Amino acid sequence: MGRHEKVIINFCIATILICLSIMSLYVYFVFENEKNTNTFRLIETDEFLGKILILVDETYKKSVSVFSKIDNKGKRVEKQTSANNYISEPKKKKIDEVRDIKGLVNLEEIDSNFVIELRYATEENFTRQKIYPKAVCMLRRETAKKLINANNEFNKMGYRIKIWDAYRPYYVQKILYDIAVDKEFLANPVSGSKHNRGAAVDITLVDEDERELSMPTGFDEFTNRASQNYIGMSEIQKKNLECLRSVMEKNGFISVKNEWWHFTDSDWEKYPLLNIRLEDIK
């Protein structure tokens, strides 16, 4: 039996003895001073005993609650919040120990605490075609570090980052640009995209049940509703978008006005365009 269990048991025994002593004095008082009303008083004594037992039970529960917050060294241990439990489960790996391919790292090999849903690896995008032959989330090493820091901050709020796109091979940029009706929302292949450098992400936020937070639009809605300044968004959408934007900017990303979901690493200029095919990444 541990030290704390002994303390709890001794505490409860002492409490019971005190209560029994009080009850004995009460019964003695009843019989000695009011002999003509014994029956009535005995009923009250039973009620009194019941209240005493309830009090002892509540005292025991409180004592367990108090001592459960004390570790083996007598130090107080605070109970973790649900958000802290939420972020302690995923597997994490030191980012500097992860292999890279021409400066790109696989985010899922570093930190599993993201929801990865690369839309261009499905037909759920504006082209209605599966563009990526393989769903692998690659980023520049330093960009990945910044994104992990941002995600850790969101975790404390009970949220996680959901990634719709990350590194995009250069050849894919031309495919998307040629298909797009409104070219305003896509970078011209002549100069390339920040995605082609592995220095940009398209993201949103999800809660602990992986439900997306309400935002102005879904992914790849190339209309004025996708603007961060769209006046028709609801108050909750404004709040969620401001949360997303403020944390990302705090951690070294630049937002884009006409696409609320797009964030670029502030150091993107130091990274060259890449054309590594995702199917070649092992």
Automatic annotation (TrEMBL):
Zn(2+) binds at H195, D202, H262. Binds 1 zinc ion per subunit. Its cofactor is Zn(2+). It catalyses: D-alanyl-D-alanine + H2O = 2 D-alanine. InterPro entries: A_A_dipeptidase, Zn_M74/Hedgehog-like. Its EC number is 3.4.13.22. The chain crosses the membrane at residues 7-31. CDD domains: D-Ala-D-Ala_dipeptidase_Aad (cd14840). It holds the Pfam family Peptidase_M15. The record marks R168 as: Transition state stabilizer. Keywords: Cell wall biogenesis/degradation, Dipeptidase, Hydrolase, Membrane, Metal-binding, Metalloprotease, Protease, Transmembrane, Transmembrane helix, Zinc. The active site is at E259. One of its GO terms (biological process) is proteolysis. One of its GO terms (molecular function) is D-Ala-D-Ala dipeptidase activity. Belongs to the peptidase M15D family. Catalyzes hydrolysis of the D-alanyl-D-alanine dipeptide. This is D-alanyl-D-alanine dipeptidase. It comes from Fervidicella metallireducens AeB.
